[in-house]
Amino acid sequence: MRLATAEGWLRVTDPTLDVFAALRPPDATCDDAGYYVEPVTQALEIQTEVCDYLTVAQATLEPLAPGDVVAIRAFHYELQAPEPGEGYLGFALDGRIEWEVHVPIPGEAEALGAEIVIDRALPAGTEMQVHVHNHGANSWELRSVMVTPG
C-alpha cells in the first residue's frame, strides 16, 4: 500500500520543524524549481544544482502498527562535484530519523532503498520527512514510500 504520493510532498522551510536541521550548512540554497514530480517516472526529483538542501514532509496515508514494514525506494544518477564529498538521503517518521544513507561523491548511479520495521503504533496522518543534500549538480529521485502490514 502507498504510504505517500509523489505530489503530496511539501517543502519544510522552518528549521524548527525540520528533523534534519542539524545537517543544514550555513550556505544551503534551494529554489523551488529544484524539485518536482518527474512526469515519466512519477518520482519526486531533486536537482541539487538548484536545491542542494531539501527536506519535504507529508502525512502518512495509512496507519502503522508494530511489525509493519515501510519500504523506501530511491535512486540517484551519477554523482559529480568539483571536490569529492558525500551525498545524503534520510527518512524520518514522527520526528525520528528511521533511515539514512551517506553516498560518496563522485559515484556511479545507484538504486537506494530500505525496509524499516515499525516498532510503534502510528495513526494515519503521522508526519514523514525525507531529506536530500549534497554539493554539485546531481539528480536524486524518491520513487516510492510503501507499507506492507506485518
How many strands?
10
Mean pLDDT comes to 95
Strand content: over 45%
**CA-to-CA gap between the ends?**
12 Å
Unreliable segments of 5+ consecutive residues: none
Per DSSP, the total helix count is 0
SSE order in H/E notation? EEEEEEEEEE
Biggest sheet statistics? 5 strands, antiparallel
Percentage of residues assigned to helices = under 10%
Number of domain units? 1
- Largest beta sheet: strand ordering: 1-4-9-6-7
Coarse shape = globular
**Over all CA atoms, what is the radius of gyration?**
15 Å
By secondary-structure content and strand pairing, the structural class works out as mainly beta
Textual characterization of the structure:
The structure is a single chain. By secondary structure, the chain is mostly beta strands. The chain has one domain (6-61, 74-113, 134-143). The protein has no helices and 10 strands. It has strands spanning 10-11, 35-37, 44-47, 53-59, 69-76, 85-93, 96-105, 110-117, 127-133, 139-148. A 5-stranded antiparallel beta sheet has the order 1-4-9-6-7, with no helix packed on it. Strands 2-3-10-5-8 form a 5-stranded antiparallel beta sheet, with no helix packed on it. A hairpin with a 2-residue loop joins strand 6 (85-93) and strand 7 (96-105). 31% of the residues are buried.
